[in-house]
Here is the input.
Amino acid sequence: MIYKQGQQLCPNIYSMPYIVRPGDTLNSIAQRFGTNLVGLIDLNPTLRLRTLMEGMTICVPRVPTRPPCINGAYYTIREGDSFYNIAQRYGIPLNILLEANPDANPYDLKVGQEICIPGVPSECPFGTLVTIQEGTRLSDILISYNLSLNELIDANPEFNPNIIVPGTELCIPPETFSTCDPQTTTEYIIKAGDSLSTVALAHNLTPSQLLIANPHLRPANFLIEGTQICIPIS
Here is the structure.
């Protein structure tokens, strides 16, 4: 099967299309699909760092198809995951987890692969539903729940971080790094006394803009001395 990538084609059955989301970088996408920058550009030879735009379709490594999950919720495999530690984390017997994912190879789980966790409600699995209040800003949400932008969007695929609508229900996921794009950002190392707001102010940014430039970081990371962050180039 061949997939279109704009006017091009994803090169083989081991790749699939991915639509770029707000806050995505080549590094963050590569990390999400278990590859590196070289591997991602190999799949997208015409792609350049400066051309990555929200809404465009690129090719990424194919991950196994999600299994049926009628009485459970889907979970996306992350680096270091195994069926054993997932079963422990969610308090389910290992054999039940294996039975719910008969086509998954427990010895070769892929980063980005989706598996079924049985017995978990499908609405906001593993997290908490909250309602956005009037006057709430993106930075308020991320700071209140100590989330990165990518974590919030992963849990709420239809959420637009540029338009905050009061009354909207958001799924706050449970507690999950990346290099700066040298063409669009500069590196800054958090020092003692820094915070999200002070660093944003010092670089003439809003906290929301700084969080969007660092979608892999949580607000609390801006308090940790030695943390590398990315400052957008104006």
About this structure: Residues 128-172 form a domain with the Membrane-bound Lytic Murein Transglycosylase D; Chain A fold (CATH 3.10.350.10).
